[in-house]
Amino acid sequence: MMYIGDIKNTPKLSEIISEVRSLESSSANLKKVNIFILRTFTVEPLIPFLKWIFLKNNMLPEINIEDFGVVESSFYNPKTQSLIENSDILIFFPYLDFIDLNSQRPGWNNENVKDRLAKIYSLLKTKKNGITLSFNFLNALNDVMGGLSATTSHSKSEQIKNLNQYQAQLVQESPGKSFLVDLNQILLNLGLENSLDYRGLYMNKAPFKNEFLINIAYSVLKKALALKGNSKKVLVLDCDNTLWGGVIGEDGISGIKLDKDLYPGNVFYRFQQEIIDLNEKGVILVLCSKNNEADVFEVLDNHPDILIKKNHLSYWKVNWVDKATNIREMAEFLNLGLDSFVFVDDNPIEIELVKTQLPQVACVQVPKNIYELPGILSKNGYFDTLTVTDEDRKKTQMYQQEASRKTFQQGLTVEDKSEFLKSLDLVCTIHKIKDSEISRVSQLSQKTNQFNFNTVRMSEADVISRNNSSEYAVFTCHVSDRFGDSGLTGVIVLKNTESNITIENFFMSCRVLGRSVEAIFMKTVISKMQELWGKKPIYATYTKTNKNILVENYWEELSIKPEQVTNEGKTFHFGYDDIVFPLENHIKIIE
Amino acid sequence: MEKKLKLIISQILNVDVQSIDENFSKDNCESWDSINQMALINTLEEEFNIRFSDEEVLQLLSYQLIKIILKEHGVQ
Q1: Nearest-10 Cα torsion for A267, A384, A229, A173
Q2: Is the Cβ pair B11, A14 closer than 8 Å?
Q3: ω before A78 within 30° of 0 (cis)?
Q4: What's residue A582's pLDDT?
Q5: What is the model's pLDDT at position A258?
Q6: Where is A526: in which H helix or E strand?
Q7: pLDDT at A387 (0 to 100)
Q8: Distance between the two ends of chain A, CA-based, in angstroms?
Q9: Taking 60 as the threshold, does the pLDDT of residue A541 lie above it?
Q10: How far apart are CA A526 and CA A478, in angstroms?
Q11: Residues in A 163-222 with any Cβ partner in B closer than 8 A
């Protein structure tokens, strides 16, 4: 997996072009991504970068570009209609010339442009599958109002700011389906000199420099990756010289550098703020530090300027064991794949060790110039997700509950196991999907890799269309116990065909596994749909990936033998009565 | 310089290095369209560390012309 932070120097165009050719010639097994671009300027120079960045991430982009300036009419032309509908990512990329030329005149306002945007977004909404990605307008450069522009509401720059807000509103009308990239953010990061090519703009209507283009390509990739469920989930933090300056074991709580105002403590303070923001977005925080646990928690509990407290952490390993071993154990404990981990440390040896032993983990080295530390995590784009749900926000709490469950469980003998399950007071709420759950269901389908039978990713539009179809039934499962509420953690999608009931999709969050919930959920859903669709045989499949070995023997454990076993997976064909379900008297089911 | 130039042209226009002779130009090469023209100019500037003037940009239409203009920029 490549992140923008991994591209240290933008490669030369000739290198990119030849690399694209050689990657394309060996791309037979790569997953195809269809991209269709509606544009008002020469977007072609973007294409090599777009292809390069997708191919580098093991996807083969098929890119089509609409002619200049025919944004609206392409929705009525049968040929482009199908390109629009079949695209995984539809890109709408207007440039400043989209705004009429009178915009340089005093008294200009953006009403006409707003009308056109509203019309275009009503057309974009008609696309049923895949996602739409828009770019906004660059804030006006060389505003004729000069120093007065910020306080003059009809100045071009104020009108464009207002237009960008309006466009953002239109995009937000299709949550989970329509996304916006802020070009001004890229411009700010790179600076004008590295971004805009005036010769290209006036000679060829191609306004962007290569470095800018690669960042645009990356922003498209990020959306594609988040759509495929590849964003990181866990942030593993070292303590000394990462969360604060200095070494707690040597410098003591009053000696370490951590301060609201004073350099260098203010750098670490700011870095902690960013980490807290990520945590609130749903990123799981864990500590991995070679220290005495008591020393570290003295800082966390008592330092006047500490922001990261115990309650932000889902887990920690403060010991003298090597960090690769620690991280491996954390992954097991949290039930998450190593490729969802990001590891931050100031010690190059630790970074190297983790890189070699656990290549799936993304490693971030604390920079030599310590003032470059804040911003490093967002710059790399590791934690970009398409949406943030309430469950994300509660995630830390849920993993903490899971930790206390496990500690509780460890103190029990095997014979106590069933007693233990009973003592959990498990409650499963199982019902057909509600409108309010659509975004969470889509997100869970994107993020779940381990307990996932066929790894079919569903966009919100996919969920909605299945929910609206009488051939399909989408069920959700909420799990709670005495330690807390895990929320919506399981989804089953059934399809009613002439000869059988097909289990099209079945995935669950790993948080709730191992308590028979995964079997009881299936039992409840199938028996319910057999009442409605008839007692037909059941057809189930398992599609093998690198990650879903967890469910490989799910059906066998319920006494169902596979009909066919291949390298790609298994198929099962059976009657409901063949299934031997485990005891369920420890679970209370609410429908 | 000629070897490097031919390599660049062949990469950008996706043609065989051998096919680039003294007569090679925008008129007899199908893949030499306006988009590749832009890529070619950007790459030449990047590779030879020069900046073409506006006039030169419009003149870079054949292998021969590119060679002449590169020489004027002191490229050996």
Answers
A1: 150
A2: yes
A3: no
A4: 77
A5: 96
A6: helix A517-533
A7: 65
A8: 41
A9: yes
A10: 17
A11: 199-200, 203-204, 206, 210
Cβ–Cβ under 8 Å, residues A107 and A158: no
The whole-angstrom distance between A202's CA and the closest CA on chain B is 11
Q: Judge: B35–A13 Cβ closer than 8 Å, yes or no.
A: no
Mean of per-residue pLDDT scores for chain B: 93
State whether A14 and B47 contact (CB < 8 Å): yes
A272 close to A243: Cβ distance less than 8 angstroms = yes
State whether B35 and A44 contact (CB < 8 Å): yes
Q: A363 is written with which tokens? A: 């490693």
- CA–CA distance, A561 with A556 (Å, rounded to integer): 6
When mean pLDDT is compared across A37-51, A337-351, A391-405, A552-566, the lowest value belongs to A391-405
Q: Is B48 exposed, middle or buried (0-12, 13-18, 19+ CB in 10 A)?
A: middle
List the single best residue of B46, B48, B54, B58 to mutate versus A (max A Cβ within 10 A): B46
The tokens for A524 are 């409840």
Helix (H, G, I), strand (E, B) or coil at A365: strand
Residue A203, both tokens: 């000679």
**Helices (runs of H) and strands (runs of E) counted in chain A:** 22, 18
Q: What is the pLDDT of residues A128-187, one digit of tens each?
A: 888 999 999 988 666 666 666 677 777 777 888 899 999 999 999 988 789 999 999 899
- Please tell me if residue B76 touches chain A, with a CB cutoff of 8 Å: no
pTM beyond 0.90: the answer is no
Sorted by sequence, the CB contacts under 8 Å of residue A252 that are 6+ apart come out as none
